[in-house]
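Researcher: Let's try something more involved. This one mixes different molecule types, so please make sure each is placed in the same coordinate frame as the others.
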Amino acid sequence: MKVTQKGKSNGSSWIRTRALMIKESHQIIRDPSSLLIAFALPFIMLFLFGYGLSLDTNNLKIGVVMEDLSNDARSLAYAFANTSYFDARLGHSRKYFENELISGHIRGVIVIPQDFTENLRKGEVSPKLQVLSDGSEPNSATFVENYASGVFLTWLIANGYENATRTSPLLDVEPRFWFNPELSSRNTILPGCITIIIAIIGTLLTALVVAREWERGTMESLMVTPVKIREIIISKIVPYFILGMVSMLFSVAICMVLFGMPFRGSVFALCIISSAFLLVSLAGGLLISTLSKNQFVAAQASLVSAFLPTTLLSGFIFEIDSMPAILRAITWVVPASYFVPSLQTVFLAGDVWPVLLPATGIMMLIFILLFTITIMKSPKRLEAS
Amino acid sequence: MNELPLVQISNVSKVFTGGKSPALDSISVDIKPGCITGLAGPDGSGKTTLMRLIAGLMIPSSGTLTVCGFDVVNNPEEIHEIAGYMPQRFGLYEDLTVIENLNLYADLQGVSQDERSGVFNRLLDFTDLKRFQKRLAGALSGGMKQKLGLMCALIRRPKLLLLDEPSVGVDPVSRRELWKIVRELAGQETGVVWSTAYLDEAERCDEIILLSEGKILYSGIPKKLTASMKGRSFLVKESASGRRSILDSAMKNDSVRDGVIQGGSVRLVLKSGADSSLIESLIPGRKLAAVPAEPRFEDAFVDLLQHRHAHKESGVASMIRPVHADSRTAVQAEGLTKCFGDFKAADDISFSIPPGRIFGLLGPNGAGKSTTFKMMCGLLKPTAGRAAVNGIDLENAPGRARSCIGYMAQKFSLYSNLSVAQNMDFFAGVYGLYGSGKRKTIGQLVDMFDLAQYIDSTAGELPLGFKQRLALSCSIMHNPVVLFLDEPTSGVDPLTRREFWNHMNAMVEKGVTVVVTTHFMEEAEYCDEIGLIHQGRMIASGSPDMLKDKVRSVEIPEPTLEDAFVELIKKTGPGNSGIPARE
Amino acid sequence: MSHSTGIIRILALMVKEFHAVWRDKKTRFLLIFPPVVELIIFGYAATLDVKNVSIGILDEDNGPVAREVAQRIQGSTFFTKYHYLRGRSEIKNIIDTQKAMLVICFPQNLSQDVSSGKGSTVQVILDGRRTNSSQITLGYLSQIIGRYNIQLFESTSKHVIRPEIMIRTWFNPNKIYCWFTVPSLIGTIMAIEVIVITGLSVARERELGTFEQLLVSPLTQWEILIGKTAPSMIIGLLEGTFILVIAMIVFQIPFRGSFFYLYFSIPFYLLSIIAFGLFISSMAKTQQQAFLGIFVFIMPCFLLSGFMTPVENMPQWLQQLVVINPLKHFLVIVKGIFLKDMPFSDVVENIYPMIFISAATLPFATWMFRKRLG
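Model: All components are placed in one shared frame. Result:
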């Protein structure tokens, strides 16, 4: 036993910390709500995010107005109807589909005008295909417009109309999407979801436990024992760290089994980055509850501080680079904005240490900062000194 | 026994930021080892602050405080090694078992594994909790939690044991057991500081420190203080109906310092130098017989404090309209039974209360008195039996029945974040008052209870006594026929309690019926009739004196109401297996 | 007599609720903080637009065509950071480390092949970890190159008639993202406020112990129910109006439809949310539990409403399930009226489901509420 060599007070410090950790573990096991948060919450969240959130805009509902009834026009209309990008309905009334656009039943209208074939054949006036999109859903509108252009171009080439000019453009683009060739947005979103889960578990659970000690008056009892504030804090972090890591691995397993996510990095790298992020969240929770001393306020503050920045300022749905400068500056101190790309990298790209190491380093810095503030702000007596 | 003092307090003051006057104002006193030192005083007198200062949980604003020679500011660690402290809420982890709580505190106190089993065995035997080692602390009854809290503070056999109001909300049986345990400890060279609002407890302490408004009014042996009251206490025997009017006229007399109802008698304390013959002529045209009584510590306490608080006649009498009950029984319970699953919380409880009487429901924690009380005022639906108020069945016509009920819950459940005026407005509206009628009623209540100075203050920030006044004023706004009071003076000091009962007496004189639950035996003395509930059944009922008579024996020739309570419970068998109180 | 005192009692309860909401620091915080934060973040940050993209350029051609395209890329405001690579080996590093979202590679002899009329291909490597952004970026890059292609044509052959596609984005011609989010906030913020106020109201009284005080008063269960729900309704309406005004004045979003239709549909929406709030309230013993209950309700309500990502992207079975989400229907209404001047028939079409939701949940919530009272 190396602790006993260091003298009596050090040895008992370890015993005290261990006793507090055992106590904390008992409380975790006895309290169904903490287990519920650690295991039911990841499941529900992954389910909601995995199925509910998707940027994969396929099967956009559109209407095709055929004012021109020639064979060419029909062929073009069927081209729209047959592509997997669109779920198209054909019709003849422009007014009808415009109303459908207003009521939100469809996201776009494609009009094949009356003189379309005529112009196409004669070659005197440019034949114009009209596309109306619903700007109240800007993202879908962009996709409607891009897909429609694509379908039209393909049709022109397939039917030899582009022949009149050239078969293919002089300068062609050949895109390659690395890491995610099938372009599934779920592969982007699920790592973001795991981030939210870890943030909530880490922050919420620890925020509640310290506040609970204050509320129930047990903090007062602890303070008159020889226990040190640092021992109390460490004994809160360790059990919840283990719980959080187990819950994180559980979430990763769900992602792989249920949603078929690829996992190209190593478990080692995963554990390193997750540990850093979990530590930041735990320290954040402890700080919140040390400052609030009240479970209700602690719960609110931790949900707000864990959920909002991780969802909105981490870049997993909303691109950080697109935000105004002030908000971009704020994301520098949002730990999730380092963790989300790291996690996406470990899942999709592999162990890219040049990404992972700086991110881990910064998160550890934030952790040390929060931890120090917590120790400093922790009252050694019942009153603020 | 004249060794060094255990705690030395010299010129200690404590000022809280934002507080108007200091919580403690240059206090100097010594606390001796090996005896129990009581810490008594009205609410807000600084008891808890002093406790926390001694425990090193707070730093004095000025002055020095040492425990065994260790300074609280510089050496709190050393103090924590030798002191045990039980805060007001016992400081237990409710989701740990009894033994887990003990192990935790043993580890924190640095008690080694070898010593531990011996200490635990001794403590568990001592407190009779051996059978419950595996039970979660949260599932223990109030009395048992208190014992466990005490054990946790005792694990290292501290030189100084600090107990902050250990007996609040605990029934007399458990209170006596606790006292026995602590008494034994004090015999073993441990110094105990026991803060309390129960003056009978304070009287039994070896030393007493009496605090008021942050100053020490008295410190020393309680007997000495009590003895100073010799010849000033008297008992006036009287029929049930006449007691309240005697008390009322006595309190109007300038020479009377204090008066309370004690069962079938009125207990009066005269000012020093007053002639006892004045009692005989208190009521014009009648000659009252006054018997000299042994002075009590409470008499001395009130005497010391009354210099500051003048008695005031209750204005309630002038405002409340006489109540004419529609029925010969104001409250009636017929075979009230309540089951929670297999557990019978109340079992076939019947009684009836005539109008204009005070009825007290007494019983140990978890005995079923809360359940019964809640069925009486319509908060719980009985599994069997029926309850009626003013002749109206609570189940058939709840709305009509409820409009004759006034209700004051434990801890004065007010809207603590609303202002006094907003609270009163709300309750007036709920009872259907509006317009000028509402304004008039509220105005009267504000005058009567002296609430004008606090009218825009937030209710939650009022001093305890004013909270109680506000709660009372909200519950009598609609001139109720029956007033239900659930532990109305829990944690309140004797002076506020007297003021409260002064109002109650005035209301009862007007024909209002009062139903009250309490753990305070002095409060129970005010009742005309008491129902004692144990294990879900009513085991005894009758006037306080009748209950006392029931247990009169050779061993207890002059039983107090507390003796009666303890003895009657004992007769029925212990049974209290620690079933938690059902709320 | 009893009828009018009933009204007095309800009024007293309502006044008290307003006082309580306003004087309670926690509730006041919940009333003010979420709308402000949501407005700032969603108004400015939450955008699926892509801007400020950093691009890697690998020029193995060193000819005029590559230089021209690179110049056009640099000329656009879309790309703001450029990394010139020295060789193919650098591509992996710059993409892996996310220093660039994409790399464009001009192959050797590009200029020669283009000017000879043979044609050539540029390779674009994109970071698939950022699925949506990389797709949008590719679309933008394709446009730049497409326009360059047309210019190339025009310089070689004169006056070519090409089939054209005419795109018009209705309702929001510049596809400004906050025109989508801010009107949606009217729905989401009202949901938050109403659920918080109804959800916490009973739990707060339980915690304070004042609930028993209400129960022994002459207030009937129905009066308590009305007194508790009406303030949420009113506060919800006020918050909604507040966001509406901000949307029109601060964000300058045109309100094209009928105020009457909007205010006609809001009570139906609020009612269906209140039902959930009552339910949470009657289940929770403490404010703490109520708050967690609110969180559990709000999260799926937001995620599955079309607010974050479109409903039509969800799997079919989930799309059928989210019909029970009142926010989903209200978002159609609020955006429809705000931007599209939606006709009444379309509004009603979306009110129906909310009526059904309330009809199913309100009686249940009321029953639960009354059961917990009695």
